[in-house]
Write a structure and sequence with these properties.
Number of domains: 2
Structural class: alpha+beta
CATH architecture of the largest domain: Alpha/alpha barrel
Shape: globular
Order of helices and strands: EEEEEEEEHEEEEHHEEHHHHHEEHHHHHH
Number of strands: 16
Bound molecules: ligand 9MR, zinc ion
Length: 538
Amino acid sequence: MQWAAHERGDARSFRVLQMKPDGTPGKRVHQGPLSAALQDELSGDRVQLADFSAVKEAGRYRLEVEHGDPSASSLEFAVGDDVLRDPLRLAMRAYYGQRCGCEVNLGGGYEHPPCHLKDAFDATSGKTGLFQNYGGWHDAGDYGRYIVNSGISTGTLLWAWEMYRDQLQPMQLQIPESGGSTPDFLAEVRWNLTWMQALQDKDGGVWDKQTSLHFCGFIMPQDDALVSYVIGSGEPPYKIATASADFAAVMAIAARVYREFDPVFADACLDAAKRAWTWAMAHKDALFLKNPPTVSTGAYGDAHDSDELLWASAELWRTTGDAQYEAPVLARWRALEKPLQMDVPSWGNVASMAWWTYAMAEHHGQLRGDAKLVAQIHASTIGAADGLVKQSRKNGYGQTLAEADYDWGSNGTAGNQGLLLLMAHRFHPQGEYREAARGNLHYLLGRNCFGVSWVTHVGTNPFQHPHHRPSVADGIAAPWPGLLSGGPNRHPGDPAAKTVPTQPPMRMWLDDWQAFSMNEVAINWNAPLVFTLAGAQG
Ligand code: 9MR
Ligand code: ZN
């Protein structure tokens, strides 16, 4: 582990002090030289590195730099094998805090009664009348629920289960289902899956979202009297190919994961997945590019559904082994004009999720896929991961983000780069990929130019003012726990964010609840955080 110190002038050495139980610094346990200073372009800071990986004894420490008088000192930090365990639990439990349609009680006053119980079909869905569908997770700082974003979020979490079950199965989340026969982690994810299932029409197609027509004010969810409408494209066939394909992918994963706990539910998931896939394949032109004129909640507009269809096909094939689902994957691969390339996943681009699930598909413990394609997936993943590792070496703070990554939700990108690195680690465990993924966690949890932890209630100096309605409206000073800030954005997208003067990209952040393009929280950013926290351990 390293500590990046940004100091006024260059210093030569540092020391690590162990904190005493009374919170004062105790004995010096380590000292060493600081690296030569480097100019970090992403923050504008002059950075020196302190390598204290020799400090292995669990405990709380502080780092001091000889720097004239008085000597400069870091915030307190913890060393230990289990330092990521509580952050993992909090980041996952945050989904319970996002639940819609039921009573939520996280303790400490973070609670609300059931919310958003008035539901109806909007004309854009092609139907009219009432609609009873409570549930799901509030997407972000708003109370909308969106299939596309639910797709990548629940998909990422279920992958975390498939890959890091040892970390996740023992986790106690203190949710209403705790103590039942399904592990807490899966019970929480099922809450959102059940909501998603209700957005599937009888013909197999899936609507875009269930939200009010406009965002409500900064009020508690139970005080939001707006009707939650099922919203579609506003023109036939009303349902959406991207949403339907993401839905199919997630339900196909769920069919694998829940089978041992609830085969009836697993069967329902598989059936829903197949019907959504068939609908999406037959309606590739049914896109949701922007909101219909009557609606102004989040759009998650996406002009390309080929990546979602690829993901749905690959997951269904992995679950069933049925060649009809493999065929589109092989066809897409053979039609590629350039070598296969692994992008960092995002809500709008899930192509690499498709390739990775293809490469992980097993049958009786044997890899099932075309050996040549699997080899190409491995190689291109390693290539992309090598690029990230190289970038992290250039950065003073050791994260893998480059300048272009400092967009809306850059902290989510840091999480998804962690996911890519952990895929590389799976394909090539000898590499440094897991260490680079850990580097992104250090960055998110405090090793950044603000010395701030971007996860609420985690670390010595967590951020305080997320764009998150319950955190603002509940009358409690501290925000709801376990939520990841969207993070720095070099393209400020709201009036509060626009008050930040133009600076190096990492500095384009503000701990202000109004700055939604920099400091909102979202289920698709917490999911790769959970994944990376789970995969970085062990
Ligand atoms: O995460 C989304 C980001 O990629 C987009 O640039 C941005 C603007 O369209 O929207 C983000 O998603 C928001 C969604 O539309 C509504 N709920 C809050 C989401 C996070 O800010
Ligand atoms: Zn709600």
